[in-house]
Amino acid sequence: MQAVKIVGVGQIEVKDVPIPVPGDNEVLVKLKASALCRSDLHLYHGESVFEDSDIDGSTITPGHEPCGVVEKVGKNVQSVKPGDRVAVYLAYGCSSCSYCLAGDTMLCDKFRCMGFDLDGGHADYLVTPEYNCLPLPDEMTFLQGAVSTDVGGTLYTACRELGVDGTQTVVIFGIGPMGCGGVLMAKGYGAKVIAIDVDPQRLKLAQELGADIVINPKETDSVAEIKRLTKGMGADVAIDCTGSQIAQNNALDCVKPRGKVGFIGESKSCTINPSDQFIRKLIDLKGLWYFNRADWNEITDFIIRNNVAIEKISSHTFPIEEAAEAFKLFDSRVTQKVVFLWD
């Protein structure tokens, strides 16, 4: 089978490797779609994603947003069978701690991530524990399923955790793939959505996805404009998908007292004014990262029931043989999601 390997900084090779064999409680999945993520680019640039990992990234097949068809199952597998359509949950844990039992495997002390600590989905086949197989509804394509995991699941959960509903104004900072997911999910919840980005093409896409208002902070003071649009009150909810200190501060500044702010974009540090931006406004600030495994059916039901056009998050598709070109294009930041597809 073919598998993508990052063999050096900015260097991709598609190698022939043996098809893996599922062990006890494991499943062999024939991949049909696997989405690239910005975190894949950390490996592409020779950077770590999880600082405590001691795995040599050049030996690992990346990809943590895959979908496919169960090809074979190992001993003791009971919940899936050959022919089942599945998405794959990225988090691997101990399976017995309180976090794993509650479905928050990414919080387990023994957390490992598919595509970083062990082989992921940018390959013809993938072996994964039975527990990590998520049923893919017949109404969803494999591409839709792939982008419904990391992006769809994370942003659905973000909107739910922040209490988004049809009475609210929600601001999304950064209209990359995550921000696009934020626009789609917030509109699915019925909210009025304001999209913020410095790229005119991304703002145009935000409008196509349903954003009610777009603001380019290079041209307009975004916080002042949000206050004007909300009659001086401020937004109900703001979600930062950039990891930029400027956007994080603007998210805190643009919400009204008792507003809610979510941080999704990864960053190492951020300086804020806790008294004025946070304490005296009684703001709720939440860290938002991936979704609880038990929520998968709820997430896919929401997407199907509300006709969420999750596939529009993907702007380009490639066969696995063209992985080097796909990574290079995705790294240029002129795309939204890039997805590998198999016939």
What does this structure look like?
α7 links the parallel β13 and β14 (255-263). The chain is an alpha/beta fold and 343 residues long. It has ten helices and 17 strands. It has two domains: 2-136 and 309-341, Alpha-Beta Complex (Quinone Oxidoreductase, Chain A, domain 1); 152-287, 3-Layer(aba) Sandwich (Rossmann fold). The model has no long low-confidence stretch (mean pLDDT 95). Strands 3, 4, 5, 8, 9, 16 and 17 form a seven-stranded mixed β-sheet that branches. The protein has a six-stranded parallel β-sheet with strand order 12-11-10-13-14-15, sandwiched between helices. It has a two-stranded antiparallel sheet with strand order 1-2. The chain starts with a strand and ends with a strand. The chain is globular and about 60 Å long. The protein has helices at residues 38-44, 98-102, 142-161, 177-188, 200-209, 222-229, 245-254, 274-279, 296-305, 323-331, and strands at 2-8, 11-16, 26-35, 66-73, 85-88, 91-92, 112-113, 125-129, 133-135, 169-173, 192-196, 213-215, 235-240, 255-263, 284-287, 314-318, 337-341. α3 crosses α4 (177-188), α3 (142-161) crosses α9 (296-305) and α6 (222-229) runs parallel beside α7.
